[in-house]
Design a protein that fits this description.
It is built from 17 helices and 22 strands. With 544 residues, it is an alpha/beta fold. It has 3 domains: 226 residues, FAD/NAD(P)-binding domain; 164 residues, Alpha-Beta Complex (Polyamine Oxidase, Chain A, domain 2); 96 residues, de novo design (two linked rop proteins) (Up-down Bundle). A 5-stranded parallel beta sheet has the order 11-2-1-15-22, covered by helices on one side. Strand 12 and strand 13 form a beta hairpin. It is globular and about 80 Å long. It starts with 7 loop residues before the first helix and ends with a helix.
């Protein structure tokens, strides 16, 4: 347990280093730290769950008691007679508007585009993707099952606040298969560039590891750590864990799958031979691909809304629509003696302004940096230096060859090429057509490479690289669409990757929110937690 020489913050930092941001979030709750800490503490853990550290302290404007975890803890009608202007109608902005409206605040939500949801959107037939230098029209067939989530696309089981809203708003959910042993792992310089099934790679790595550990235990190398009974139990366990033979050796097993041959009866095929340990260790599979689904944010079974991720945005929008002013582009954020004045251009290009007691700004820092504002020097510097990932996603319509020819139902295949991942659809199994995510690049190098291409070149490159995974890929996929988040107006990035620092504190009566200011950067749950943190700060001031 933390002591006076090892603080709770130090403890959380160590968890972040080892296990990532979501683990810090759960640990914070377990320690009795609440949304004032858990919602605002940041890690460098991204949507792909790389390890990070909690680096920010709670807001100095949070309620003194710091006891709030959920909206049920806020006093009813605490906002009566108070007003707030919320900038941005993404998940963070709409959460703020919904909850503060329920508390009695007079809320106005300014949204730069003609739609709500921010990065929580779904692309279907006829939809238009506008980038800073191009326009694409989605040519999918008009079918409710054919859609593409270019932003958030999956929900973890422990994202309890988002799941509560889905439950309360009647947003139907279905399984999202995040890890499928029938999917492929591909590396251009491993196994002569031939993709291997995740099933075989994981089975072989377990088998060889179990055999080596068995040998170490039996040779006495672990006697200092194990009693004789422990050693006996361990070696017995390893036989099952690694599918070892009676002598504790590994040479492959039925876990690897079977060599299919039309000349043999079903279920009596020859077992696929084990890959060599040296070849496996020479590959990069074990560095991230085989452990991906062990992370708490990326477990094998996740969730998605039935019909598209924008079902969540639409459910929020339905409840706050009367508060939203669409196509309202913020031009200046000014402090006043009694609060805040927001200057903006309406849908017709006419200048307008609105004054309120408070402002909650959820505008991405990449966009906010170019808006005139009366921010403090520290806040402005943090905004100017904030970094976002340059993720790109692409999708194609296709015959479901992955199901019909390869028995892959959902899941993700990996490659070391620029496209990084191929996602197979998790809905309408067995139908003829499906939408395959042909690229999900979350590294900045790959993201910038695709951002520098025009949409046609992106799709051609994705189809070519996909052919290295499935030989028929280039001939099967068509009707592609791409979204390069650095080039999407009013977003200019996929998710925040910087330490929020001072942005977790209010700048006079201006508060900041958004997934980039949460312990779960890149997740909708993070956006909600950040909204709670901002509301806590304002409610705390209202306590007087």
């Amino acid at each position: 347990m933390p002591t006076s020489n090892y603080s709770r913050r130090d403890f959380l930092e160590s968890i972040g280093n080892l296990a990532g941001g979501s683990a810090v979030y759960r640990a914070a709750l377990a320690l009795g730290l609440t949304s004032a800490t858990a919602a605002c503490g940041s890690s460098s853990a991204s949507a792909n769950n790389t390890a990070g550290t909690i680096a920010a302290t709670p807001s100095t404007t949070a309620p003194a008691s710091s006891t709030f975890v959920s909206p049920a803890d806020w006093p009813p009608d605490v906002g009566t007679g108070k007003s707030v202007t919320i900038l941005g109608a993404g998940i963070a902005g709409m959460t703020t508007a919904y909850e503060m409206n329920n508390l009695g605040y007079t809320c106005t939500l300014l949204e730069a585009t003609a739609r709500a949801g921010g990065r929580c959107q779904t692309i279907r037939a006829g939809d238009v993707v506008e980038e800073t230098d191009s326009t694409q029209v989605c040519n999918f067939n008009a079918d409710d099952s054919l859609y593409f989530n270019p932003g958030p696309a999956r929900i973890s089981h422990h994202h309890v606040n988002l799941l509560r809203y889905c439950r309360n708003f009647n947003v139907s959910l279905e399984p999202f298969i995040n890890d499928n042993r029938a999917a492929l792992l591909h590396q251009t310089d491993a196994f002569d560039g031939v993709p291997q099934t995740a099933r075989q790679v994981k089975a072989d790595l377990r088998g060889y590891t179990a055999a080596l550990l068995t040998d170490a235990a039996n040779s006495g190398a672990l006697d200092a750590q194990l009693s004789s009974q422990d050693r006996e139990n361990l070696t017995a366990m390893l036989v099952d864990f690694g599918a070892l033979d009676a002598d504790g050796n590994y040479s492959g097993s039925s876990r690897n799958g079977y060599i299919e041959s039309p000349d043999e009866e079903p279920n009596r095929q020859t077992t696929v031979p084990a890959l060599s340990l040296s070849a496996l260790l020479s590959s990069d599979y074990w560095r991230y691909q085989t452990a991906f689904a062990e992370e708490i944010n990326q477990q094998a079974s996740m969730l998605q809304p039935v019909g598209g991720m924008d079902r969540i945005a639409a459910a929020f929008e339905q409840r706050v629509q009367d508060l939203i002013r669409y196509s309202s582009i913020v031009s200046a954020i000014r402090k006043t003696d009694n609060g805040v004045r927001i200057e903006y251009l309406d849908g017709a290009g006419n200048p307008n302004s609105i004054e309120s007691d408070y402002c909650v700004c959820t505008i991405p820092a990449t966009v906010l940096a170019n808006i005139a504002a009366d921010f403090s020097a520290d806040h402005q510097q943090a905004i100017d230096n904030f970094v976002y990932t340059k993720a790109t996603k692409m999708a194609f319509q296709s015959r479901r060859f992955w199901e019909q020819d390869h028995n892959i139902y959902g899941g993700i295949s990996w490659t070391d090429q620029g496209i990084t991942q191929i996602w197979y659809p998790n809905n309408d199994f067995g139908s003829q057509q499906g939408i395959v995510v042909g690229a999900y690049t979350y590294s900045n190098s790959a993201g910038q490479r695709f951002a520098d291409m025009n949409p046609t070149a992106r799709l051609e490159t994705a189809a070519t690289e996909g052919t290295q995974m499935h030989q028929e890929y280039g001939d099967e996929v068509s009707q592609g669409i791409s979204v390069s988040w650095p080039k999407i107006p009013y977003q200019e990035g996929a998710w925040g990757a910087s330490d929020p620092g001072v942005l977790l504190t209010a700048d006079s009566n201006i508060y900041f929110a958004g997934e980039h200011l949460s312990i779960l950067q890149g997740w909708q749950e993070g956006a909600i937690l950040s909204a709670y943190h901002a509301i806590n700060g304002i409610v705390g001031i209202d306590y007087g």
